């Protein structure tokens, strides 16, 4: 099973993981790393390396393209060619839930990444467009 590591600015990582747990329950091999104001890039790298540990397949999901969490995770990926690893930016809750549910069913990390990018994009919609398509009734939530 692919290990999921969420990294984001402030408490984004623990916040989005908390939301995912509310919907999907507690998950194994999913970890949040907060990039707090008092931390350096080296602190993030140290926590990331500790989280990767001896896992063979790891997906790091970051909040922003080009931010410190993304840059650090990308550098770590380059430094650890023995780990099947990828780094995604622009994490949203739809992507995280897809990752949680699909990581056991998807054999390669590249297939998982493809599904998450598609899911992330599909999860972005405005109400007017939904209303005009006469889709599901979301009044009771998910």
From TrEMBL:
It is found in: Cytoplasm. GO terms for molecular function: kinase activity. GO terms for cellular component: cytoplasm; membrane. Keywords: Cytoplasm, Kinase, Phosphotransferase system, Sugar transport, Transferase, Transport. Signal peptide: none annotated. The keyword Transport applies. Its EC number is 2.7.1.-. PANTHER family: PTS PERMEASE-RELATED-RELATED (PTHR33799), PTS SYSTEM MANNOSE-SPECIFIC EIIAB COMPONENT-RELATED (PTHR33799:SF1). This is PTS system, N-acetylgalactosamine-specific IIA component.
């Amino acid at each position: 099973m692919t290990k999921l590591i969420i990294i984001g600015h402030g408490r984004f990582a623990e916040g989005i993981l908390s939301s995912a747990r509310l919907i999907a329950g507690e998950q194994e091999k999913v970890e949040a790393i907060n990039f707090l104001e008092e931390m350096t890039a080296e602190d993030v790298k140290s926590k990331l390396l500790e989280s990767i540990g001896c896992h063979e397949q790891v997906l790091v999901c970051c909040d922003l393209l080009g931010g410190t969490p993304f840059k650090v995770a990308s550098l770590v990926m380059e430094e650890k060619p023995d780990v099947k690893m990828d780094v995604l930016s622009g994490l949203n809750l739809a992507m995280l839930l897809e990752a949680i549910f699909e990581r056991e069913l998807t054999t390669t990390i590249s297939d998982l990444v493809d599904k998450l990018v598609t899911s992330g994009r599909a999860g972005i919609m405005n109400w007017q467009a939904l209303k005009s398509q006469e889709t599901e009734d979301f009044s009771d939530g998910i």
